[in-house]
Amino acid sequence: MKTLTSPLHRKMAFVMGLSLLTMAIFAGTAYGYAFQNIYVANNSTATLVNLNHSQPLFRLFIFLFVVILILDVIVAWSIYIFFKDIDEPLSLLTAWMRLIYAALLGVSLQNPVMVLQFQKYIPQNEMLINSALNGFLEMWSLSLIVFGGHLCLLGYLALKTKALPKTLGILALVAGGCYLVSNTANLLLEDYQGIKSTVEAILSLPMAAGELGLAVWLLWKGRQKISLA
What we know:
Blueprint: H1 7-35, H2 44-53, H3 55-108, H4 110-121, H5 126-159, H6 166-188, H7 193-225
Helix pairs in contact: 1-3, 1-7, 2-5, 3-4, 3-5, 4-5, 5-6, 6-7
């Protein structure tokens, strides 16, 4: 089992940790606040009213997700550099899984961008606007299946090195499993929507603990060792 102690590894830890933490904050703002204050499930009329009154908020939601997409690419790069001395083929696969997730996220963002066009040319078409927002959610959920697989690989890599606490590797594996279960069920089960909110409420804690725990530890460990002079 190898350790990761070089200056390059510490710098990559800092970059990865900072990117992951920034993504968590931006995702919470974009989806947890902006999107949730506009989109009302199964109520296209209320969604349209909210959208008409919250155009800046909706545009902020799109912008933050674009930044998140860019940060995903940075995280993929830093993962490969950080873990390649532990298992280069697996670190490359883990990085590629993150890039595939980012690509699918980019595809999903076409839907809210289409909403901006609908608002410009056919602003009161509830059906098209609601369909586009639902399309974003469905495509994003599909991409999160890939993301769950990525987290499982990342957790396994973390367990292969002494540089990271074993707890973080286990939390990443658990978080990845939660993403896989929730989003695979969303894809395969027709009646999943009825229990989706309950399942996500139960799984949200391990999912957040896996990602945020790794982000905070990497940021602290990398910053602790790096001289900014």
